[in-house]
Write a structure and sequence with these properties.
Structural class: alpha+beta
Number of helices: 7
CATH architecture of the largest domain: Alpha-Beta Complex
Helix content: 25-40%
Distance between the termini: 41 Å
Radius of gyration: 16 Å
């Protein structure tokens, strides 16, 4: 039920305009699930749709770099070929390309333009999931979007692997949103 409330709120909010408007609408909808509201409020307070500069790197470079880690075993908090978690895969991919990114799914979700509709996701976008384990955080899992409805992620049981985004048994029910970091130019005038 919480997943449905969060998704309905996010869908309604982000379709009306900016992400800021979306979060405002979410809070104003008077949802009765205090746990969901708390997670959304915590995420909102930390900021979102922050700019990220990928330099001259392409989507294809990110995907090829992430695929270098296929078969790497899962290790909570890991960021190396010896073992990595979901955000460790993304962190390591960025690092291998000489870029700096946070390690942690919730921290990663704060960067890039939010894309709610899965049909609008492009290869190289980052996709986020909620409530994949027990925590107070809104965002609990991250992966890179690949072509043909696939994603590359670090599974706790199988390590880094490629699977369908719309897996009917698990991932589809936990989908939250995606972010687009390519084509989002940082606004340096605010610094």
């Amino acid at each position: 039920m919480r997943n449905i409330l969060i998704l309905v709120f996010l869908l309604g909010c982000f379709q009306i305009g900016t992400a800021q408007d979306a979060m405002s609408v979410l809070i104003a909808q008077n949802l009765t699930d205090s746990v969901a509201l708390g997670r959304i409020d915590q995420f909102r307070k930390g900021g979102y749709e922050k700019p990220f500069d990928c330099g001259t790197h392409t989507r294809e470079e990110f995907i090829a770099t992430a695929k270098n880690y296929l078969g790497t075993p899962y290790q909570y908090g890991g960021t190396t070929a010896d073992g990595m978690d979901c955000s460790g895969l993304i962190f390591r991919t960025f690092r291998d390309l000489g870029l700096s990114a946070p390690h942690g799914a919730q921290a990663l979700a704060r960067f890039g333009e939010i894309i709610l509709d899965k049909s609008e996701l492009l290869p190289g976008d980052v996709i986020f999931f909620t409530q994949t384990y027990s925590t107070r955080k809104l965002v609990t899992h991250a992966a890179f979007v690949l072509a043909d409805g696939q994603m590359i992620h670090a599974s706790t049981s199988k390590g880094v692997q490629i699977i369908p985004i719309d897996d009917p048994y698990y991932w589809n029910a936990h989908y939250l949103f995606g972010t687009r970091i390519f084509g989002v130019v940082p606004d340096l005038s605010e610094e």
